Amino acid sequence: MTAVGPRARLWIASAAVASGLVCLAVVLLPVLERRVAPELGWARLAFRPACHQIAERCLDLGDGPLPVCARCFGLYVGGWLGLTAAAVAGRTVRPRLAWIVIAAVPSAVDFVLGFTPLPTLDDWPRFAVAIPPALLAGLLLADAVADLGGERIA
Amino acid sequence: MEAKAPSMMMPALIAGGSLGFLSGLPIANCACCLWAVAAGLLAAFLYSRSCRSAGVEFDGGKGGVLGLLTGAVFGIVGSILNSVVSLVTGGLDPAAMREAVERNPMISDPEAADQAIQMIESVGPAFFILVFALIWIVAGVLFAALGGLIGGSVFKVQPVPPASGGGWSTAPPRTDEPPPPPPVAPSI
């Protein structure tokens, strides 16, 4: 674990806020689309390059499917949690790549099962198993952002 | 004297080109963002090996720059291949696109679906090729930069600290004398 200086911490916090805004946009888009402006449906296209957007595989919080699938949303939330944890702690850690690979096994198995007739996870479990590998990747991302930001204390 | 940093172009071309090609194939493009992240990671891995052998530092900052470069290659290769495949298979045919919009459950508002259909019919396939290529490149650059940043942290290479003493080894000088005999226990 390495403590970071205030400038590097600010960079990590900025990245955490940016990723948090993406997560917030994912959650708010169906709400705004249904309750405020139906034309906002076009904004779903912004998430299209990164996700298949199959509606049956997207979480529905009551106002229609989210603009990304449950697995993608789990990855976004996990990344945001990792960045936020590093920003709050003011420290960075570098988990080994093997840990991420191990943490990604449930998602990978579910992904592969999707190409077979075997049953796959439901949306909420699929969302949940995507969080751990993304959280670890978020911690690594925080370490890299701290490199961009500059000084390290220890 | 500081060692010269190896070129980023080769790892970017290898990683961006190969994974961009794979992502452009219709059977493999289901996890598009992960392909781009993987391209950034692969480029970081390849570049870290070059840096290690050259004795040059590699960290998240350089990984991010490498990821941007890799993403550009990834986006260009992937978008070209995807456009060619779409043209060949008829995926950009306005009738096929109209059907895709009508069947898309994501577009819940009928007005929005009508707007999309009207737009598809008013512009030709060339417009969509350009738009898709642009989106592909932007997304590729963003996600590969993410992969490059993470790769820069995973495969970090610390600079080798320069040895003190004007470049000479700090190890004790070698002598050709035989080692001293082991201590003998005093006899009582």
Kindly summarize this structure in a few lines.
Chain A is mainly alpha-helical and 154 residues long. Chain A has helices at 6-35, 70-89, 97-113, 123-149, and strands spanning 2-3, 91-92. Chain B is mainly α.
Structure keywords:
A: 154 residues; mainly alpha; two-stranded antiparallel sheet; 4 helices; flat; B: 188 residues; 6 helices; 0% strand
Question: Quick check: average pLDDT of chain B?
Answer: 79
Task: State the end-to-end CA separation of chain A.
Answer: 9 Å
Gyration radius of chain B (Cα, Å) is: 28 Å
Average pLDDT reading of chain A: 90
Order of neighbouring strands in the sheet with most strands of chain A? 1-2
Unreliable parts of chain B: 165-171
What percentage of residues of chain A falls in helices of 4 or more residues? 55-70%
Largest inter-chain contact set: A-B, 30 and 29 residues
Radius of gyration of chain A: 17 Å
How does the overall form of chain A come out from the CA principal axes? Answer: flat
* Structure annotation, total helices of chain B: 6
Tell me what you see in this structure.
- Chain A is built from 4 helices and 2 strands.
- A two-stranded antiparallel sheet of chain A has the order 1-2.
- Chain A is flat, with a radius of gyration of 17 Å.
- The model of chain A has no long low-confidence stretch (mean pLDDT about 90).
- Chain B is built from 6 helices and no strands.
- The longest helix of chain B is centred in the middle third of the chain and has 30 residues.
- Classes of the chains: A mainly alpha (about 150), B mainly alpha (about 190).
